[in-house]
Amino acid sequence: xxxxxxxxxxxxxxICFDPGNNHFEISGRSYPENAERFYEGALEWIDGYSPExxxxxxxxxxxxxxxxxSVICVLQILKSFxxxxxxGGAVSIHWKHQSDDEDILATGEDLASLxxxxxxxxxx
Length: 124
What we know:
The protein is α/β, with parallel strands linked by helices.
């Protein structure tokens, strides 16, 4: 499957899903004008992705700010990766936050409680 890439802008994060290099990342600030429309392509890509057998998928989130409407969309992204896990993919989430940003850490912990995905937390 081909790579999915959205470049970062002032209000929206960079999204890179590159299965050829086993690189899955969402990074930056997320407060696009219409979060649902912004994340729609990423959700469609995940739904169409079928990983190779026994391929571990590590998804890196490195968000510096996330609006409430974006949190809902990030949860949808996580639920799509959860569905991918149920179809046989080995999915883990790396939730990275700035060392002094307890809000982003708490957001990650809240989102983790709503999924069955394995979360790891670290700082950048």
